[in-house]
């Protein structure tokens, strides 16, 4: 099955030859796409927690969907963790728009290897072009 996707690619100015461009998807199968902000603080493990904040990957507007997400936590106690996963389905807001719930466990890292749990809800939807 072929799905028409439109968007554009921009050089991100990074010297990494493997990831020197970013893809911005503006529509998926004729529908505009949107993203959500998400942020929070992990559980306390090994005597500390980490903060995180980022944007979900784009998803089509106006249909049932989920978003993938990926970010790196703050640097605390000499290390970071990766947070990644897929949100739950859209939950409608009374005034319009929607949000998603997310939860999971970070990657294992630290001088005493450990992970952290995290959970939260995204912000309301935003056009990926804002």
From TrEMBL:
The record's listing under InterPro entries reads: YmaF
The major lineage groups are: Bacteria, Bacillati, Bacillota, Bacilli, Bacillales
Protein name listed in UniProt: YmaF family protein
Superkingdom per UniProt: Bacteria
UniProt organism field: Paenibacillus ginsengarvi
